Amino acid sequence: MSQFKGKLLLLCGGVGGAKLALGFSRVLPPEQLLVAVNTADDFEHYGLSISPDLDTVMYTLAGLNDSERGWGMAGESWHCMESLARLGGETWFRLGDRDLATHLERTRRLRRGETLTQVTRSLCSHFGVRTPLLPMSDDPVATMLRTSQGELAFQDYFVREQCVPAISGYFFCGAESARPQPEMMRLLSEGGISAVVICPSNPFVSIEPILALPGVRDALRDSGAPVVAVSPIIAGRAVKGPSAKMMAELGYEVTPAAVAGLYRDLLDGFVIDKSDRAQVGSIEALGVATACERTLMRSLDDRMDLACRVMQFARSLID
Question: What is the DSSP string of the chain?
């Protein structure tokens, strides 16, 4: 168990963020951790409120995730999707039979007036997740991508089109008026956060939606807590997802240094993989302390080890 003191705030997307969040949840008690998750890829499908990143993190922390697919629940069946296909329905976004129960209950409770924060807290309780897991906002925000096929909502780009269209830009509908997660903002303003970790999630569509909410960047800068990010790029590639493709199409080098540049106004520290050691000079030239660790997380031990090393690095920035 780590000797880290105080509360740690994680800013988190889906699969990559969930892996590191699991590591932190195994080395810190629940009262020392707060996980704020991107909800800009939430959408409505077949009348159901779907929260892909929230569910990925929740299922991962509950030990219920399908580690091979990277999303959904392990041991799924697909009877509903098979029946929809026979009826000629849309099946491009696959919802497993067990997963459907989560979306049905979320939708029911949202429609009766509960906030997404309240619903998420209840779902986590039922799944045995003790680590506080919160949506970045209770207000709707939607990631939109400008692509070679026109403007696409994120799930259309990511799932329906399999990330094939080239992208030239993106924006977040509703972000300018959405209220950021109240618990996160309260702790930041009151000095209740000892360190902030930006998980190895897609910087454009997983982390930037959180940072785009009114007041979040200022709150992070003004909190006095060191902000440390973990690179989602290892040796010129993303472990999973379209981060590398998006970086190249948006005109960035596919390097940890380029990711650090995206966060440079916030960062005190940046963690990169040992294979990218040659990037240290470029990152430190931005005024950002850099640590080289083994960041590829294949096992639970890898996740826990990286969490401990990130905390040690953050603590060195405090001291």
Answer: -----S-EEEEE-SHHHHHHHHHHHHHS-GGGEEEEE--TT-EEETTEEE-HHHHHHHHHHHT-B-TTTSSSBTT---HHHHHHHHTT---SS---HHHHHHHHHHHHHHHTT--HHHHHHHHHHHHT--S-EEESBSS--EEEEEEBTEEEEHHIIIIISTT-S-EEEEEEETTTTPPBPHHHHHHHHTT--SEEEE-SS-IIIIIHHHHTSTTHHHHHHHT---EEEE-SEETTEESSSSHHHHHHHTT--SSHHHHHHHTTTT-SEEEEEGGGGGGHHHHHTTT-EEEEE-----SHHHHHHHHHHHHHHHHHHH-
